[in-house]
Amino acid sequence: MKSTMQEIPLSVARILEYGASVHRNTTVTTYFDETAEQTSFLHIGIRAGAMANMFTDEFGIGRGDRVGTVLPNCTEHLEVMLAVASMGAVFNPINRHLMGKQITHIINKAAPKVLVIDATCGEQIIPLLADCPCVEAVLVIGAAQENTDAVQKLVDEHLENLRVFNLETCLDGRSADFDWPDLEETAPAAICFSTGTEGPPKGVVYSHRALWLHSMQLRAADSFSIRNGTSFLCCVPIYHVLSWGVPLAAFMAGAPIVFTGHSTEPEHLAHVIADAMPRQAHGSPAVWTGLLVHYAKQHPKKMSLQEIYVGGSQVSPAMIDAWEERFGVDIIHAWGMTETGPVGTVAHPPAGVAGAARAKYRESQGRFHAGMRYRIVDDNDNVLDTNDRNEGELQVRGNTVTGSYFEDDASRFTPDGWLRTGDIATVNKDGYLTIHDRKSDIIRSGGEWIYSAALENYLLEPAAVIEAAVIGIPSEKWGQRPLAVVVVAEGTPWTAETARKLADELRERVPGWMVPENWTFVDHIDKTSVDKFDKKDLRQHFREGKFEIITV
User: Fold this and answer.
1) pLDDT at 510
2) Residue 443: pLDDT above 90?
């Protein structure tokens, strides 16, 4: 017997066509400043068609060719993403917050023929293109011709034979009718790169099928529950795995999208929330920690948010409780990677649990969706039983998980096809994941493992602590001991007495041998381009003697 079902390839073009017609009046709002710039799904569909004609006619972009972007979260970025993928080319968003050599590596690896940029990044990006011969033209967003002229001046200073255009000028009068091609659902739609914390950035190529399946998964009630009419505030950059895939799911569902433009700084973000009144949001813990501190000084008149999905690094129980108690907002953990499409787990507690049990589920990284297989292995790759006592490296595979890197033979995959995540974790019988630490961040002290992420969560519980990161430093006796790098609230002294108080409070939560005896207080903790603590940088600061260490 064979199936009688039709086989229609899953494609980004169908998502675009569906959203632009069925949900034509749904809005996309961008805040470059305090003023809202609003458009509709219908208008985005029209402009996407015009862009596809422009890329084809003016720049010779065809199937499989790459178009890169260096843009903030804004309507134009979404339009380019939808147009490029739908026409059969490959969308290549680039993280401008990486180091210059990493950006150059990404451009040369992905080889985009055209870059669409924001003029504010011109001074950073244009000089790098001298080492990127693949880029033939640059398009500058925005109607202001002076911005394009400023980029042209930079090109004249640093490059030859690189064409510069204004995007709006190129679109003016362009036909919006484009015959979206019938593509195989396994065709490439986008390429995103890891942040390069473990060597050069590595490319992951997403198929139309993977993006479609991931979008459907985000719409599920046990996932992000992206639904018609419920507005979503996107604080994860599009360059970070297409803003976790939320814009595509929103186009499917008819969920209004809110973009913050160039900034997610607390003051700007507070204004956007007060003006746009979104119901859902996502972002890194650093974004929501900063906003919480801002709200402590300037309490919002009204809070529209109901759910905030947080990932990238662990959220402390103290932060989860603070948002719920002060504003009635549910902070929901999510876990994933560039390599997993990205969202793999979401921490909605199971039905029927309450009190301490509910809190434990909320503090986990959440339950895997049905499309992702998982296993925990020991140091010898022996598969362990899944329960909350067996700790080991998490490995995953599935329809939204990459099976390799783009033109890279990195040995991150097992012989039987599983992705080694590098996360030390447990998975309980209910399929809920708890990440204990990155394999590279575990502190090995006297034959025991100290999980830096767990210590960081406990350190954040005192009101005096704003941020805390823990790294391992050498110890002649124990091999390694933890060093606590702490940002404290204004007015809290940077003294041994403060360190002792924090150590005493921590000692009530963890065994004494896990409590750091080494402390340092800082104004801020450097973060990576995706708002994770930059522990590589912290270790370098320690080696260079930049920390004033207090030993208690």
Assistant:
1) 85
2) no
Three-class SS of 191-212? EEECCCCCCCCCEEEEEHHHHH
Average pLDDT, the chain: 94
User: DSSP characters for 340-405?
Assistant: GSSEEEE-PPPTT--HHHHHHHHHS-EEEPTTEEEEEE-TT-PEEP-STT--EEEEEEETTS-SSB
E strands, 66-128, in order: 66-70, 90-93, 114-117
Cβ neighbours of residue 283 under 8 Å, at least 6 residues apart? 235, 236, 264, 308, 310, 531
Angle between helices 452-459 and 496-507 (to 10 degrees): 110
pLDDT > 90 in the chain, percent: 83
CATH number of 12-211: 3.40.50.12780
Task: Reduce the DSSP state of residue 512 to 3 states and report it.
Answer: helix
Place of tokens 């001298």: 130
The predicted-structure confidence for 454-472, as pLDDT tens digits, reads as follows: 888 889 889 899 999 999 9
Q: How confident is the model at residue 335 (pLDDT cuts 50, 70, 90)?
A: very high
- Cβ atoms within 10 Å of 409's Cβ, excluding its own: 8
Percent of the chain with pLDDT over 70: 99
How confident is the model at residue 196, as a pLDDT?
Answer: 59
Distance CA 86, CA 9 (A): 13
Amino acid type, 168: E
Question: Please, which pLDDT band fits residue 41 given cuts at 50, 70 and 90?
Answer: very high
Q: Which two tokens stand for residue 119?
A: 């003029």
From residue 362, how far is each of 320, 321, 515 by CA, in Å? 8, 10, 25
For the cut 90, the answer to whether the pLDDT of residue 450 exceeds it is no
Distance CA 110, CA 66 (A): 7
Is residue 487 a contact partner of residue 523, using CB atoms and an 8 Å limit?
Answer: yes
Q: How far apart are CA 251 and CA 227, in angstroms?
A: 10
Pick the CATH number of 443-551 from 3.40.50.620, 3.40.50.720, 3.30.300.30, 3.40.50.300: 3.30.300.30
Confidence band for 447, pLDDT divided at 50, 70 and 90 = low
Domain ranges of the chain: 12-211, 443-551
| CATH topology agreement for domains 12-211 and 443-551 | no
Residue labelled with tokens 């990576």 = 528
Non-local CB neighbours of 380 within 8 Å, separated by 6+ positions:
none
Residue 548 in tokens: 């004033």
Q: With contact defined as beta carbons under 8 Å apart, do 439 and 376 qualify?
A: no
- Burial grade of 293 (CB within 10 A; 0-12, 13-18, 19 or more): middle
Q: What is the DSSP letter of 262?
A: T
Chain segment 221-232, per-residue pLDDT in tens: 999 999 999 999
pLDDT of residue 326: 96
Classify residue 493 as exposed, middle or buried by CB count within 10 Å of its CB (0-12, 13-18, 19+): exposed
